[in-house]
Amino acid sequence: MVWDGKGAQLYDLSEQTAYQDKVLQSLDTQFRFRDGLLAYIHPPFEIVWFLPLGGLSYFQAYSVWLAISLGCLVAGVYVLLRCPGHDRSRFLRFLLGSLAFFPVFINLLQGQDSATLFLFWALGYYSLARSREMAAGFWLSLLLQKFQVVLPTLLVLLVLKRWRVLLGFLAGSSVLLAVSLVLIGTSGIESYGRLMVEVSGWIERKGIYPSQMHNLRGQFYVWFHGKYPSAANALTGLCSVVLLALLVRAWKGKWEPGGARFGLKFSLLVTISLLVSPHLNLHDLTCLLLPGLLIVQISGQDLEAAAAMRRLRTAAWVVGFPMILSSLVVSDWVPIHLSVWGMIGMVLLVMRALNQHDAALQWEEGETQASPGI
User: Is this model's pTM higher than 0.90 or not?
Assistant: First the structure.
């Protein structure tokens, strides 16, 4: 549509349907999406990633995007291992483990954009760990392509008054807005806003399927929405507030980027961001690679809460591999998303590790004060 000069109509659902039908007809298939449309609801600036593919056939475009997604995964793992205190010799092992992660396979199969999110989050963490706060804010602003996952990050930065990071985020956001205006104009931006209001009311249609979401909303939806929709929404909101309160509590205190405790807090940030997101599909769990890889790395360091870290490392493997995969089978039998409860368990274990780490440090400080000659 942008190539054809119809950027301003990008969020016109009838135009989207017409173009989507053309693509499906070119593939010589009888397949059609449920409700006749898989709506494009991402922010307009994200189209920049795909514009170079517009002149290719569908298969060629998919192949190029597959290579780009694999490149993002490789780059993300490489960036994380370049953070202070991390073991770079584990690169191949971590990369193979990442490719074996089922959400990554779904992301690559469907040609989704979650590998880019993983890379942007990894670059944000890398910049923070090296005290490059403006750069970190810029990388984090690119997460706005799925703006619902970045809100907890902004909350933490505001509470901690990390103004340089927020300034970088604002600068990056301004660039993204400028790109959006160039692509679709002010009328296109207005139509995007109207569509977002409309999408908030979509339930089980046009690509918005809460029953398949791997987050708090998805779990409470399958439990209560059929008979008690208000209760489902209320419980989702309440549990989200509780998790955000735990997140802010964990991040309060001394700002020490680059250490083991900082890695744990960032792991908590990503996991809770996914849980409380109002819209989250299976391929979006690709971003769980970041806390998983950080936890494995941190567990090998000389951390005060060694026992808690060993349990956390085991839990990360169990949640990341058998639990998420089996969740797809179990949810067909009983209304339980094992992936969601696994992530909640990870949150609790990270909080426990942080508490034990703080308790060990306080004990050491007390011993030092009691024995000043040591």
Answer: yes
